[in-house]
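A reminder from the course coordinator: this example appears on the midterm review sheet, so study it carefully.

Given structure:
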């Protein structure tokens, strides 16, 4: 049977068909839907872990226990999981194990561009790279057998376009794979130096076998066309190149690490000119050059962002695409916080008070955008708290004018240790935890604070207040961020203290189904003095019409924040 599937959904289907029984992940676009789709199968146990390191360790534990296991993450999540990743290359597996990593060329929803193929080489692991949904399913299924054959976790590299594009996929039934027997084996699984030395010998022998496997494996294939141009490519770049050079010969590399040698040399010798087309780093190109193959690649193509069919035609063929252009100057539509977003009142207050704000990863990163413009830094998950501590240590006078902001899910992910660092090292920073009752940015996933599992089963809700108390914080306050006056008063008090302080701004995400929407507000033009104070909160429902404030009733959710700021009393309850 055939079905039109997203790449991520096809990976989940591959897990099901391959008999996978354990999935642990942390949500991260563009990988999130894999785990959400896998959770639809009753045969697969699925969970959201607090972070990617925990997810990888849990999946490895399930593998050691004899099950086929899986975890998914985005490219920066693999940085978090790097510690167990490298050691898992030594321990190997029992049941097959796959780690999916979704790169984000073009940074659609990420703080950097990162080429995860380097992790495969550094850790000496296998990496597969599908180019469409059918290959997502097939590669996932075959990766388990590959993992068990060579005794190692297998990396499955996706990208935004592969994960979020649809193509026709042929599906089949599930293979029921029984648990493998677990046998105590300290020499294999206890990585203290004496055992690790022996396992390193195994890793190098396995690496030699994998290099030989790469020469003839079914993941790599040659598609013969013209002998004038040969293209070496992989992943989504194959799709772009195939459309831009339909007449060329192709060496499509589905196994992007380890890379073959003889296969590449023989292919290059069969054509007059060789191009390497790959997004981000010259990973394949450098390998080809090391083999003495004269290839064309990054001299003509950028290291930046995503490629496209038109880009390849223009750069490599000199064919400029024709576009139909509009005469109108269409304004940009930058991302903004949703109408009624619980974070808006906080960032308005932070800007008004002129505080230095160490930010974090989440919807609240938008607090850096106009008109709020209150976030000074955003580095990585959890860095707000740790970074603020360092900032205040070298600039002690800044502690009374600086805060860290972090979401509830991000706090569970990697913020707790930063808070402990502040209390343990006698810091006096103020941390604001934005509790919107969900993991918002990646599409509303549960987290340890929500009281529900991935499959929406009731569970223990971890108390943020008790976590902070256990970390040694004595000053802990909870407030509704829409209480502007109370919030600003609290911010002044807590930043003035000489000890660590936590403020929890608690108001659920307005997009949650359980959140009741109020009737929209409206503006009485006769009372509006055009002071524009309501525009300062950056709500997309508010604009100016003929010099007066106007509220779009189709967008307004009646959160009441703008009315609190309107001193002339021009904003009224109800649509008029």
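Designed residues:
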């Amino acid at each position: 049977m055939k079905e039109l599937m997203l790449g991520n959904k096809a990976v989940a289907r591959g897990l099901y068909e391959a008999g996978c029984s354990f999935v642990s992940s942390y949500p991260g676009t563009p990988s999130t839907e894999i785990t959400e789709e896998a959770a639809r199968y009753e045969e697969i146990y699925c969970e959201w872990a607090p972070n990617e390191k925990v997810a990888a360790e849990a999946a490895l534990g399930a593998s050691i226990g004899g099950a086929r296991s899986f975890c998914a993450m985005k490219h920066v999540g693999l940085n978090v999981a790097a510690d167990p990743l490298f050691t898992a290359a030594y321990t190997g597996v029992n049941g097959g194990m796959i780690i999916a990593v979704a790169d984000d060329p073009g940074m659609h929803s990420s703080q950097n561009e990162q080429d995860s193929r380097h992790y495969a080489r550094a850790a000496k692991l296998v990496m597969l790279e599908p180019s469409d949904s059918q290959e997502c399913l097939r590669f996932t299924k075959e990766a388990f057998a590959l993992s068990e054959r060579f005794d190692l976790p297998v990396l499955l590299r996706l990208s935004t376009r592969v994960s979020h594009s649809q193509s026709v996929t042929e599906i089949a039934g599930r293979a029921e794979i029984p648990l493998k027997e677990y046998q105590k084996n300290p020499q294999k699984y206890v990585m203290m130096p004496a055992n690790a030395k022996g396992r390193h010998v195994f890793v190098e022998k396995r690496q030699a076998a994998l290099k030989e496997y790469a020469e003839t494996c079914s993941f790599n294939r040659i598609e013969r066309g013209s002998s004038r141009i040969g293209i070496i490519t992989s992943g989504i770049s194959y799709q772009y190149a195939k459309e831009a050079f339909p007449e060329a010969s192709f060496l499509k590399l589905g196994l992007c690490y380890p890379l073959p040698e003889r296969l590449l040399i023989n292919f290059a010798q069969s054509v007059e000119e060789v191009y390497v087309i790959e997004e981000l780093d010259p990973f394949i190109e450098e390998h080809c050059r090391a083999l003495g193959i004269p290839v064309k690649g990054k001299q003509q193509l950028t290291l930046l962002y995503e490629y496209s069919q038109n880009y390849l035609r223009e750069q490599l063929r000199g064919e400029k695409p024709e576009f139909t252009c509009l005469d109108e100057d269409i304004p940009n539509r930058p991302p903004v916080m949703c109408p009624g977003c619980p974070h808006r009142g906080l960032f308005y207050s932070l800007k008004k008070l002129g505080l230095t704000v160490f930010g974090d990863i989440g919807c609240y990163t938008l607090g850096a955008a106009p008109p709020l413009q209150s976030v000074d830094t955003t580095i990585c998950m959890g860095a707000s708290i740790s970074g603020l501590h360092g900032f205040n240590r070298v600039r002690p006078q800044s502690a009374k004018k600086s805060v860290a902001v972090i979401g509830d899910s991000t706090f569970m992910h990697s913020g707790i240790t930063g808070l402990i660092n502040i209390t343990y090292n006698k810091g006096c920073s103020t941390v604001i935890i934005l509790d919107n009752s969900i993991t918002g940015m990646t599409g509303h996933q549960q987290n340890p604070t929500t009281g529900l599992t991935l499959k929406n089963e009731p569970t223990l809700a971890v108390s943020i207040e008790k976590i902070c108390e256990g970390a040694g914080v004595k000053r802990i306050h909870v407030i509704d961020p829409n209480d502007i006056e109370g919030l600003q008063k609290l911010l002044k008090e807590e930043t003035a203290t000489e000890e660590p302080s936590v403020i929890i701004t608690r108001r659920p995400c307005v997009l949650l189904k359980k959140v009741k929407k109020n009737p929209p507000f409206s503006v009485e033009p006769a009372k509006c003095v055009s002071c524009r104070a309501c525009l300062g909160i950056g709500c997309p429902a508010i604009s100016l019409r003929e010099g007066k404030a106007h509220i779009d009733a189709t967008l307004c959710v009646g959160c009441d924040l703008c009315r609190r700021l309107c001193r002339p009393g021009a904003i009224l309850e109800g649509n008029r």
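The longest helix spans residues 193-216. Residues 393 and 427 are 7 Å apart (CA to CA).
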